[in-house]
Amino acid sequence: MSEEHDEIALDDITIDDVVSAEGSDDLSDGLDLPDAEPTEEKVEKVEEEPQEDPEEGVEEEEQPEEDQEEEEEVEETEDEESAEPTVVSEILEKLGYDPEGEYDDTPEGLAAMTKDIASQIADERIDNVLENFPLVKQHLEYVLQGGESQNFMEAHDPNMDYEKFNLKEDDAASQKVILSNYFELKGHDKEFINELLEDYEDNGKLYKKADAAKAALGKYQQQQREEMFEQQRQENIEQQKVQKEFWDGVADTIEKSQEFAGINIPQKDKNKFFNYISKPVDQEGRTQRDLDHSGANIDVKLAIDYLMYKGFDINSLVSKKAKTQSTKTLRDKLAGRQESIKSAKKATRRTKSVNVDDLDLTI
């Protein structure tokens, strides 16, 4: 047969050939499928396997059910206990507060809760006041930054506030005062200012010029207030920086030193000692050292002052006290010895004295 007859022409392929070929590829890929009977046997074996030892399976299942019932009872009991309202929870619900901490349903817990809630209420009211009165808030911030309250009050005196001053057109006296303040701020002398005011008054420009000067003075006044506040804020930042550097130096000195002016300090006491002298313990910013010093007896304060007066030379004071003590001890010993000598002499005298009853009066 020739090569032309060996080739398969497109016309030689029928629809049946295509269908049969696709069916064989999809189902078996040219392999023979096994009979269905072995498959049924496997299914039967699989079904029989779980039926072995049914009694053991039942026993194993019954035990977890009992444990589960006990756990459910315990959970229900806990839920019932937790669901019971307490006096503290009812008060918090009435007040509408949800604090972070938890409080025991005891007098102590109720007292602690009352204190915390009262503090929170006070803070909220203060915040509301400060939000409604910005000037009060600014005043408080200025004072907290170390500024003087009097300076702030003078800068915000409503009687000296040009922006709030109502300048009337027929008030020539106020107009002249405002213009005088304006030109004095500019650096002019009084003679020049008086001549200028006369010219404004003669030309009918006094009110107009005074009103413009009032607006300029109002802006200058507001600028001065902002600069005062900013200056105090910067001073506070600088002061905090200096204070931080100071305490960092103190902490470094404590850490590196083994003794202070002859007084040894253990390593374990260094952190506590630093907190004692540096950490504020009250709202006024006082440390425990400040409180102890202010509450100390007068003799303790005088002892500290005397140490400072003597240059804190503890060694010389201690050695002086040791010498004094040694001298006192020696003096006591000598005095005791003298008493012993005196007592011995008295005893000798008593021995040498004549007893009348011992005299021999026979002749």
Give me the secondary-structure topology.
Elements: H1 3-6, H2 15-27, H3 37-48, H4 54-83, H5 87-95, H6 107-132, H7 134-144, H8 149-155, H9 172-186, H10 190-202, H11 206-256, E1 259-260, E2 263-264, H12 270-278, H13 288-294, H14 298-309, H15 314-352
Antiparallel strand pairs: 1-2
Helix pairs in contact: 6-7, 9-10, 9-11, 11-12
Shape: flat
Distance between the termini: 198 Å
- How many helical stretches? 15
Strand content: under 5%
The structural class is mainly alpha
Helix content: over 70%
**Structural Rg:** 53 Å
Uncertain ranges: 1-11, 13-48, 54-62
Q: Largest sheet, described in full? A: 2 strands, antiparallel
Give a description of the structure.
With 363 residues, the chain is an all-alpha fold. The chain has a domain at 133-248. Helices cover 71% and strands 1% of the residues. The protein contains 15 helices and two strands. A two-stranded antiparallel sheet has the order 1-2. Strand 1 and strand 2 form a beta hairpin. Helix 6 crosses helix 7 and helix 9 packs across helix 10. The longest helix has 51 residues, at 206-256. Residues 1-11, 13-48 and 54-62 have low confidence and may be disordered.
